[in-house]
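#random but structural
TW: two for the price of one
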Amino acid sequence: MQPVRLKLTFELMRAYEMLDSVRLTEPKMATDEELELVHDPGYIAKVKELSSAAPAGAGLGWGLGTGDNPVFLDMHEAAATIVGGALMAAGMIMEGELDHAFHMGGGLHHALRARARVFASITIRP
C-alpha cells in the first residue's frame, strides 16, 4: 500500500482530462464504530498505535510491517479515509444522489477481522 500511487493516478487522470465531467467529493474518515463493523477493536487500536513512528519490526504479529502491508506514518488515517470514501460512495448511490460512483482508493484493502493479510501469489507452471 503506497499512498503515492493514488496521488499519481489522480494526476494522470487529470492530465488526460478524465475528471472534467465528474463531480469530485472529498472523502471523510470512517469512524471507529464504522471500522468495527468489519474489524476487531484491538486490531484498530494496533493500527492507530503503529501509525505514529512505529519501531522496525513492530506489527509483524498483526500481519503489518511486511512488503504488502508496510507500516507508515498516519497509516490509520489513510486507511480510515479510504474506508470513509467507500462508505460515502455507497451511501450516495443508495440515497439516489448518484447513479454511479468511482472510488479510486477502493480495492486496496486486504485485511482480516483482526490482522492484515498479504496478497496471495500463484505460480502457474507450463
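TW: number two ↓
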Amino acid sequence: MRFSLESREKMIVQANKLAAPLCEAEGVELVHIEYQRETGDRILRLYIDKPGGVTLDDCVCISRQFSDLLDAKIETEEYYSLEVSSPGPDRPLGNALDFEKFKGNVAKIKTHQPVDGQKNFKGVLLGISEGTVKLLVNEKTVAIPFQEITKARLVNYYGENRCL
C-alpha cells in the first residue's frame, strides 16, 4: 500500500483521538505525534512529557496501553512500528499554545510556502498572536502564519533554561 499524505494525516488524527485521553489519564502531556516513513519503514511516534521529565517506565506504560488501543480501534493494512519517546532537547512544537508556552527559546521552523523569501528559519520565539508566530531572526522580527508551518522544534531545550 502506498504511503500517501492522506493516509498519514488520517493515522495522525486517529492516533491523537486515542492517545490524548490515555496520556491525560496517566498524568503525562502528549506533546506531538508523527507518522512518517524512515529508511523504508513507517514509524508512528508519540512524544510525551511531564514536569521533571519522563522516565523509561512512563514510555513503556504508554506504549503498551497505546499499542492495545491501536490494535482494537484502528483498522489499517499498513505495517508500522510504534515508538513512545520523550521530546528531548529538540522538542517538537505541536500546537499553537506551544509557541506561547516556549516563548524566549530558540526554535527552528519550516514552512509550506516561502515567508520573506525563505522556508527555513531559526530564531528566538516571541510568541503567537492572531494566528501568526513571531520569531526573532538576526535582530529582525519575522511573522510566520501558523497554518504555513510544516515543522517546528525547539533547539537545545533542557527544561526551564531560557535564552532571554
